[in-house]
Design a protein that fits this description.
By secondary structure, the protein is of the alpha/beta class. It is built from seven helices and twelve strands.
Length: 254
């Protein structure tokens, strides 16, 4: 039984994870942390430092502004952290790397097992199609309430492609001011916002007379919650270090 502290317990993802864990015989949320009151089935504190319950791991879906405090407190308590909060500054990312020398930290821009498996497929596809001169484009679609564009997941997918290509691609977000043919090493990233469109990411490999498309659609937040729970089970008991969802997937395949 993996004992979890839910950091951001009363947020949308905190509530989703609470519901998923309640039906999971191998996991239990023993406490939560949130500045807002709630009616969870476990005690909720306003600060991780105040949590009295024994736990194996923290799942964090909160806000970037409190991540540094979270990591400091988790290090003091020797608690592994599944860090799901996005929008961290370069300074905060550097701090994540620093703190991972003290505690296990698993960080991913997207907790979906499907998206993370897709990154592996993209690396393989890029080595085939990129070397054959195919153009590569990413189109992401989300509901009209999403604040950032392009999505962090789109950048994550682009980075996977570029890693496989030894950093040869230039990310292009806007061609409205360009009156020129597409560059061979452009990687176009486009964002669509409207209505209640579920999170959708399409990767297009366009070559002479053929097009290959890979597509992922997120129909509910449960996919991120299930990924976070899988990550928590994986991270509990690990040595200090910086992990990601590819480590979780590798463990599933072992």
């Amino acid at each position: 039984m993996v004992r979890i502290i839910m950091h951001g317990a009363n947020g949308r993802m905190g509530k989703v994870i609470s519901g998923l864990v309640a039906a999971d015989p191998d996991a239990e949320i023993v406490a939560g942390v949130d500045i807002a009151p709630g009616d969870a089935a476990y005690p909720i504190y306003t600060d991780l430092a105040d949590v009295k319950e024994e736990a194996d791991v923290v799942i964090d879906f909160s806000t970037a502004k409190i991540v540094d405090h979270l990591l400091d407190t988790a290090a003091a308590k020797k608690l592994p952290v599944v860090l799901c909060t996005t929008g961290l500054s370069e300074e905060q990312l550097a701090n994540v790397r620093k703190m991972s020398r003290e505690i296990p930290i698993l960080k991913s821009a997207n907790m979906s097992l499907g998206i993370n498996a897709l990154t592996g497929l993209l690396k393989s596809a890029t080595k085939v199609f990129g070397n054959a001169g195919f153009d590569i484009e990413i189109v992401e679609r989300h509901h009209n309430q999403k604040l950032d564009a392009p999505s962090g997941t789109a950048i994550m997918l682009a980075d996977a492609i570029n890693d496989a290509a030894d950093g040869q691609y230039e990310y292009i977000y806007d061609r409205s001011q360009r009156r020129e043919k597409r560059g061979q090493k452009e990687l176009g990233i486009s964002a669509v916002r409207g209505g209640t469109i579920p999170g959708t990411h399409e990767i297009i490999f366009a070559g002479p007379d053929e097009v290959i498309e890979l597509r992922h659609v997120a129909y509910s937040r449960s996919i991120f919650g299930n990924g976070a729970i899988s990550a928590a089970k994986y991270l509990a008991g690990r040595e200090a270090g910086l992990y990601d969802m590819n480590d979780v997937i590798a463990a599933m395949q072992a």
